[in-house]
Design goal:
Elements: H1 2-30, H2 35-47, H3 49-60, H4 64-89, E1 92-93, H5 96-117, E2 121-122, H6 124-145, H7 150-159, H8 172-204, H9 208-220, H10 222-233, H11 237-262, E3 268-269, H12 272-294, E4 298-299, H13 301-323, H14 328-353
Antiparallel strand pairs: 1-4, 2-3
Helix pairs in contact: 1-2, 1-8, 2-6, 2-11, 3-4, 3-8, 3-11, 4-9, 4-10, 4-11, 4-12, 4-13, 5-11, 5-12, 6-11, 8-9, 10-11, 13-14
Amino acid sequence: MNLLMFIGGLVLLVIGANALVRGASKLALSFGISPLVVGLTIVAFGTSAPEMAVSVGAVLDDRGDIAVGNVVGSNIFNVLFILGVSALITPLIVNIQLIRQEVPIMLGASLLLAALALDGSVSMLEGGLLVGLMIVYTVFLIVQSRRETAAAQDEFARENVPAAAGEWDAKLPVQLLLILVGLAALVGGSDLLVEAAVNFAKAMGVSDLVIGLTIVAAGTSMPEVAASITAALKGERDIAVGNVVGSNTFNILGCVGLSGLASGFGGLGIAPSVLSFDIWVMLAVALACLPVFMTGREIARWEGGVFVGYYVAYVTYLILAAQQHDALQAFSGVMLSFVVPLTVVTLVVVMIRRPTTPTET
């Protein structure tokens, strides 16, 4: 029954996110709003909607560990697993704007979250600050998009066109209904997913936090999985990367911000294990994007393989730590003494030896 609840909640989250994005996008385009603005705001927000729904729902159910674990785990999953698998399908091109602007913004948001969490909680005031920054970031994207070249606008317009008069979602009532159905599915799906995750945690003898960092985080990232892998298969390799980076920023500012506001005056508690380990893994993963992205402005297949390998290692560590397994110390020693240093040295050598491509000059 718990498995059926989890799968049902996951299906509702994916359906809800798709319906919300479709309805809101068509509605905005029908009113003549720039397709580029729609993609940078509504679509980006839509792919983060499951994380927001689950995190806020968990806080309202007094399951703050799931809310925090969901965001931190999703950001780790997005970079290591989604980008890793996408790069294994085809080497991913990294747009220069991502290196110069979006990745530093994602890093800044990650650092801010770590700083706010140092006292063990994110207060309602700090949650409001994060939501305010999300609004500022969205407005910034809208203003910036108006300066895009006509060629960029035309390229994005081909991917997001207003509904034609004969299409089923061309009418305003249908678009509004899609939005309402999407929101309802997100709320219902988040309730089912959180309840199933809590039951899983009790049955397996692990904490809500571990379930949030793994199962819930992967489940709520399904829209990002679908979007990035589909983009990679279609050859739209820059979209596959941009989707992940933008989603991570929205996860921190939007999900944690709204969860902090929903927590009231008590604040959103941050578990000591998150402060001592998981949040630093999230920061390290975000920081690792810069050297990987800068090595020829692409994510090669071997780098994608390294990302996936590190995600498997991270989940393995969480499971061993939750069970206090005897192999935990040996596993940690091998990772810290051999695997991590070797990866760092390899990236440094690749950055030094790989020639600058003509597009970078």
